[in-house]
Predict the structure.
Amino acid sequence: MTDISQTPATAPAAKPKNGSLFEKDARTKRRNAAEGRFKMYGIAAIGIGLLMLIVLVTNIVTAGLGAFQQSFIELNVELREDKLDKKGNRNIEDIKKVSTFGYAPLIASALENEVAELGIQTDLSPKDMGKILSKAAQAELRNYVISNPNEIGKTVSFRFLVNSRVDGYMKGRVTRESIANDKSITTEQLDFVDQLRDAGVLYKAFNPAFIFGADASDQRPEAAGIGVSMLGSLFMMFVVLVLALPIGVAASIYLEEFAPQNRLTDIIEVNISNLAAVPSIVFGILGLAVFINYMHLPTSAPLVGGLVLTLMTLPTIIISTRASLKAVPPSIRDAALGVGASKMQAVFHHVLPLAAPGILTGTIIGLAQALGETAPLLLIGMVGFIASNPPDGIVAGFLSPNSAMPAQIYEWSKRADPAFYERAWGGIIILLIFLVTMNTIAVLLRRRFERRW
Amino acid sequence: MNDMTRLERTVDSKEIKIAANNVQVYYGDTHAIKDVDVEIEDKTVTAFIGPSGCGKSTFLRCLNRMNDTIDICRVQGDILLDGEDIYDKRVDPVQLRAKVGMVFQKPNPFPKSIYDNVAYGPRIHGLAKNKAELDEIVEKSLRRGAIWDEVKDRLDAPGTGLSGGQQQRLCIARAVATEPEVLLMDEPCSALDPIATAQVEELIDELRSRYSVVIVTHSMQQAARVSQKTAFFHLGNLVEFGETGQIFTNPEDPRTESYITGRIG
């Protein structure tokens, strides 16, 4: 004690025996460097991932947003009685006898009137002028007249779709140079379009028909919409939900809570994991063989699609359900059994409510997976089918041929007209909105109910 | 409640509630319980003591067939409750567990309200005809669990929000709500602090007037404080079984003596 107090202040401080803590030794430096490097790798990996995501999203959005807008032309069409209802008695059967071709002259004369009214000078023949309109315009007019026969004889203002080339020109996809070898549109027609646009008759606007409408044939890409295949997807998802959730949950509860641990259950367990990894096209061919060839269910029907996707989703639901059942602490089961609850009461009153958020999350993720699945649908004929009308009622929704969103996107991306390409990207945006919504719900459910015990 | 008063206490001979004869328990190939004979009296606290892994919890779980939930566990021998073999084929373990309640080592209230925790047992066994009766059972059970005064104003609060000691007393209340005849307690105080332990021990002493209580404990002091009979287990054998006073002052077996004096275990 006295020694220390008498140590002169100028004397060098006693050196720490194994090196100073203020200096890093070589080993520590190496370790710190390795840690720093690893952090950099991590940040780089996340950066690459984020960059990819940004590229992907911007790409999808720039390529697909165009599909939500469409060019329209506004025309006042005189619904001439002498063309549409010669007898003049407004009999709906007689009116229906006039085919779509019968409406062509009405539109042509409406366009001619419009041109004359606006004072547009053009060398185009009335027929070539009419070609800037969509082929869907006549059908649209006919549908309107059939549902409103009392309007015959009046002049009604319509907003018609224009041809996909004209639409492409309005969106900048088609230029005067790019149509050099294009037989379906000429530079004169583009000049005419310019004049109509300047006059404010031809303009771009939001197109709800893309979201709610039906697919259209190869000649009318401007009229194609994803709505009907969206319905197809919804009917399929309904089938998947109704079948896969109860079957999957019942199977998992039995396997997890009741089944004895033996070789048979081990084999079942391994095979469920294997099934989850089976390529989806295998389920498609299985569905084709069993549901269509053997059971003779209708081809292209959402019911069959739903059955196939159920097979595909079941392993996902079973695995996630078993995981969330396993996560419930055994003390809860003991507590229930200890007060004299039967095994089933213990499971249904106590274990299942605690596992429910996990089960729901797994189910939603399974459904999202099924929603985005294309390959199995190729084999049961839900691709390439053009549904021109929404299904007529619930039963028809399940049984009549339809497509599904991803199949529709695939179909559009196959078609030659670049206007379909734009629609494929637009469809991807809609599909992604669905998937992101579903996954968000899954995350929210998990957050909301996690760890209540 | 010091140890000395316990020692002088007289133990009346009472009727036998549970009689175990020649009980063997196997976990797969492991012989966990060897040849255990024990007689548990009614309205008595019986303590099982012994070092870790000696089989006392395993044996306790045989008494209400909780071991049935473990696939690889096999039980041989007779365990008679009021003269009826509980491992008989005709016995439904669910019915048995309503008669033989259990409190676990770690407080495990259901993640529900305090009320629902206690009301669950009576509900599934149909002990109450209407809401008023159920309310009455819940209050009575919570009072017997010595927790009524602390929770009477918040019966709708979650049971998991209580402190550890309160949770354990809630679990005891939940166990007595089904009107069991025997109450098994598997180290009920091992997760509790000394104050909560004292409360639970006091409660156990009160429960003795109605039930036959079997308690597994690591703490010899606790066994001495709360029990009238003590069984000492070692390596799966029941080494010694007798009145608590005698076991702690004058054990017959040298192993018991080594354990209670702290030389083994």
